[in-house]
Write a structure and sequence with these properties.
- The chain is of the alpha/beta class.
- The chain is built from nine helices and 13 strands.
- The chain has helices spanning 40-50, 65-76, 139-152, 168-172, 180-187, 192-200, 240-253, 258-273, 285-294, and strands at residues 3-8, 11-17, 32-38, 54-62, 80-87, 94-99, 105-110, 129-135, 156-160, 175-179, 206-210, 216-220, 223-227.
- The longest helix is centred in the last third of the chain and has 16 residues, at 258-273.
- The two termini are 34 Å apart.
- The relative contact order is 0.16.
Length: 303
């Protein structure tokens, strides 16, 4: 069983489904609701566990009821929470999420200022861990974890959903998967492929950019390759990127090459998008394998 240590943020998400995004400051009625755990690193860890990997989460939470609920949910999904640090006097991160009929989401998050606590992340990877997945929400923790992955010769994946506050996060990682928004922030270019080319020109590692239904561009053999998205009708995109990065890290830990890992991660994220409720929709390994088999006879692509 390949192991992935995920490092970063864990939240409690309150997800409201509506026909369309509200545009007026008045009362609105949701047609569906889910209270689920969320957060980039935490959702990636759940994705790893459901996909058959050993998942470990290193995160900071308050010593409060929200934090307790977050941990209980993670444990129920088989995530090793022994490296979660509970801090007195801190309110654990919580988000209100609106999801419309197109599957798009609007997130309002509250998170107390957390102490850096980079030394809460082990200097050496725990036994059985074959990859690291870090987000940009805990810079000190991510730097320490990615350095440990590099020292161990293991993949270190950075989920760069936004421009990292410390550029060293992107240089320490062996694999950086940017969101299209982050590429725009870094390069000023609206075209994800062109933006990735600009980043790749000076990058010494593997880099990629994910762009939802438009698929994923990534570096391969000195050029920019493309893996189209699987054809699905999105219901809820909340957590899809987190599932993608968790699956990508697990695929690399299992020895997949980058294209195979991207395809595997794309399938996991696609299935999640067809289900309401944030990370509650993260698929199992059997579901992903069946989905990929179903689509094996045709090229993944446009919706």
């Amino acid at each position: 069983m390949a192991g992935v240590m995920c490092v970063g943020i864990a939240t409690q998400d309150l997800v409201f489904g509506l026909a369309s995004m509200p545009v007026t400051p008045e009362k609105h009625r949701a047609k569906s609701f889910a209270a689920v755990g969320g957060g980039i690193a935490a959702t990636a860890a759940v994705a790893v566990a459901r996909l058959g990997g050993r998942a470990m989460l290193c995160a900071r939470l308050g010593d409060d009821r929200i934090g307790r609920d977050i941990v209980e949910s993670l444990v129920a999904d088989g995530v090793d929470c022994s490296l979660i640090h509970r801090l007195p006097g801190i309110v654990s991160p919580i988000s209100a999420v609106l999801v419309d009929d197109a599957g798009d989401r609007l997130i309002v998050n509250y998170a107390d200022a957390m102490p850096p606590a980079g030394n809460a992340v082990p200097e050496r990877l725990p036994h059985g861990i074959g990859a690291v997945m870090a987000d940009t929400r805990w810079t000190e923790g991510g730097l320490r974890a990615l350095a440990a992955a590099r020292a161990a010769g293991c993949p270190g994946v950075l989920d760069a959903d936004r421009r990292p506050e410390n550029p060293e996060l992107a240089t320490l990682a062996s694999h950086v998967a940017y969101a299209a928004q982050a590429v725009r922030e870094i390069t000023g270019l609206d075209d994800p492929r062109a933006g990735l080319e600009a980043i790749a020109a000076t990058a010494g590692n593997w880099v990629a950019v994910t762009d939802g239904g438009n698929g994923t561009w990534f570096t391969q053999g000195g050029r920019i390759a493309h893996e189209p998205a699987y054809p699905i009708v999105p219901v809820d995109t909340l957590g899809a990127g987190d599932v993608f990065h968790g699956a990508l890290a697990l695929g690399l830990a299992e020895g997949m090459d980058e294209r195979a890992a991207v395809r595997f991660a794309s399938a996991a994220a696609a299935i999640k998008c067809t289900r309401f409720g944030g990370r509650a929709g993260a698929p199992t390994r059997a579901e992903v394998e069946a989905f990929m088999t179903e689509h094996a006879g045709r090229t993944p692509g446009c919706r």
